[in-house]
Amino acid sequence: MTSETASTAQAEALVRVRGFLRAHGTPEDEIAEAESRHVLDLLVADRLLVPAERRYTQVEVAEMTGMDLDLARRFWRALGFPDVELEERMFTDLDIEALVILRSMMDLGVADIETSLQFARVIGSSMARIAEAEVSPQARGLAIAGGTGSTDTVEAADRFAALADHSLPAMARLLEFVWRRHVQAAVRRAMLLRSRSDSGALPVLAVGFADMVGFTTLSQQLSEEELAAVVARFEEVAHDTVTAGGGRVVKMIGDEAMFVTESALDAARIGLALAEAYAGDELLSDVRVALAVGPVLVQDGDFYGPVVNLASRVVNMAAPGSVIVTDEFHSAVGAPPGEFEFLAIRPRRVKDVGRIALYALHRPGADPVALDRRLGGRFERIAEVFHDLDELREKGERLIAGARSAGGAEGGDPESSELE
Description:
Layout: H1 3-23, H2 28-36, H3 40-49, H4 58-65, H5 69-78, H6 93-107, H7 113-134, H8 153-196, E1 204-212, H9 215-219, H10 224-244, E2 248-253, E3 256-261, H11 264-279, E4 287-295, E5 297-299, E6 302-304, H12 306-314, E7 323-326, H13 327-332, E8 341-350, E9 354-362, H14 378-409
Parallel strand pairs: 4-7
Antiparallel strand pairs: 1-3, 1-4, 2-3, 5-6, 7-9, 8-9
């Protein structure tokens, strides 16, 4: 593309962006200011993501919603937003609507203030994570602000305006669908647990932790891009394996995954599947897996209690590539004959618990994993995989550059040049 063509294209993009902003009620002075500051893409994002005028102060919001000012500020923080000056006109009709919904839920007795605030924190933290994922470099196709890949703000604003007007409503519908399905699943789980447990008793669940071996060492040998690929792959394998086995991934903590199941049998199957999946993945090192079972406290989508703490501590005692379980878990499995074997291992002392009996879980006929299993050369092989990929990419780039140069020298179309 010649400089004249590029200039014409940018001028046309600027006309489209200005027209878009005017159609969304943006004053001319705001458009001019955004142009002069080279932030047209941010202005377009603001108009699309929060399509309402900032016209109210906190005091006015409190008066219009009938909510105490201090309580309104607490909800704002709970949702994950920083404090603003009392007289700053920061709030929109959408903010008013959100607070009215919260107020109506409290007035109906659906939730008290503290419960509503905690629910707001869960919503805020969850949505913040979703938003960060949408604007990450890996999610450029979603056309969310920052994901266009362009350094030119006019081009970025033009692309964002063209795509996000359609993709944002679609994403909102997708989020609502996923939310409804998960609420349905959560209600079913709660009803099943209630029917199986005594009134007021904590539900009994199997809790598992999978910890990637040598992550610190591995992270020192890889670039940031390569490390991101490893983390993404670790999460992918964990989610796929646990979900396929009927469990639920509670959270990913860096190089560790926590999951729960309603039965010890499902947890045992998932534990072995995780160990085997990571052992067979050339991009990842082995994992240690620990399983325990017992009553847990369920709150805000997370799980707490001595059983969770025990599984978290025991996982560090497992050998790379192995699955170890507590004595209670061993007794609760009830697996069909021939599906699993257990090997009693030396009792270990656990902080705040004391000495406990542990078992190594493995397939029938398979030897329990040795402590030094592949701990040496696995990291080097992973680094070699990335090194080989880098060399292939560089070779491809050199071939393409050479083909384009040859095509240009002969007066042909470099884009149509074929690589021999």
